[in-house]
């Protein structure tokens, strides 16, 4: 087998001449048959599509990470929330087990003897304040998985027939994540954020249509429970004549997340006067008491908040995420592999500037995020605003530079112009 990249040889498939970008590989008795690199790629895609049509390779549990390995991976990118990470790791692993159980060749002896036993999926509901890491957990988990994973926002959804996105668009995101492979998408995972924002306005059934609240919950119910849904490949009603994609949602794992602001007061009212002793104001509780309170959340509490009982029944696992403390936020700034400080340092390094933060500066940034009640989500905006003048000045100053962010600079809220200009005197050899 020989390789060519000159114009004197042509591909036997497409007829185009060889070049540095179109390398030809020859084969046969006298190397009379040649194929170019681009035709090889086209053949690979054709074979992949053909295999997809004929069925996917079954999941083998021996190739799947254990719950401990999933959690160890999450620990590298997400600070704190150990219980939530443990719950998600177990849920994802169990999802793989369900997929593996569909392969009769890999069934353990117990299931061979009890073939009537079917493992049901256990969808997960995450409850936690804004900035506590719900979306980050989902995104980080997606990096580790080898099944399609999609993240959707419940606030954009409306009941069918109204302006907004249909719930089927959630499934379209998963199909796109699977590169259009329906069979792969049918064993994927969907994370729906801001689920609390579609709670109905009160426990009483409204006489008017709640098209972005209870109506969306009713529409989500059928796909979470399991149904064969018709999905518009181009999204929604803008192309009414398009052919629909059919997808079975029975084996799709759903993870729902929301801040559920105010649900702690609902729980407190329910258990006030009981032996647990939660009779005081929620605002006076310490973090441990708040976590214990949220972990006592019952389906009735969620119904009072605005979720319909049917959708709660499809979410058997409920886990509360704790509000991040000052120590947690300080660690988030520096410890994760993709931490905010590491990103900023890498960005400034391109301009030959070495950026440092004192420990006191990091603690002050964490304090500001706590006062603003933005959690980890607000850390980036605080840092970006703080270093805006530095970002403006640094590229104009040639040579290697170094700048240290102190507590005083953080308290001032920005790097002053005079401090930025001092960069010129801080250049190093």
Explain this structure to me?
The protein is built from 19 helices and twelve strands. It is α/β, with parallel strands linked by helices and 429 residues long. It folds into three domains: 2-54, no CATH class; 61-320, P-loop containing nucleotide triphosphate hydrolases (Rossmann fold, 3-Layer(aba) Sandwich); 326-426, Helicase, Ruva Protein, domain 3 (Orthogonal Bundle). The strands form four sheets. The protein has a five-stranded parallel sheet with strand order 5-6-9-4-10, sandwiched between helices. Strands 1-2-3 form a three-stranded antiparallel sheet. A two-stranded antiparallel ribbon has the order 7-8. The protein is globular and about 85 Å long. It starts with a strand and ends in an 8-residue tail after the last helix. The mean pLDDT is 81.
Give a short overview.
The protein folds into 3 domains: 53 residues, no CATH class; 260 residues, 3-Layer(aba) Sandwich (Rossmann fold); 101 residues, Helicase, Ruva Protein, domain 3. Helices cover 41% and strands 12% of the residues.
Secondary-structure map with pairings?
Layout: E1 2-4, E2 24-27, E3 33-36, H1 37-54, H2 67-75, H3 82-101, H4 109-113, E4 124-127, H5 134-144, E5 149-153, H6 168-177, H7 182-185, E6 189-193, H8 214-225, E7 228-231, E8 245-248, E9 253-258, H9 263-271, H10 287-294, H11 299-305, H12 309-313, E10 317-320, H13 326-334, H14 340-349, E11 353-357, H15 359-372, H16 379-386, H17 388-393, E12 401-405, H18 407-412, H19 417-421
Parallel strand pairs: 4-9, 4-10, 5-6, 6-9, 11-12
Antiparallel strand pairs: 1-2, 2-3, 7-8
Helix pairs in contact: 2-3, 9-11, 13-15
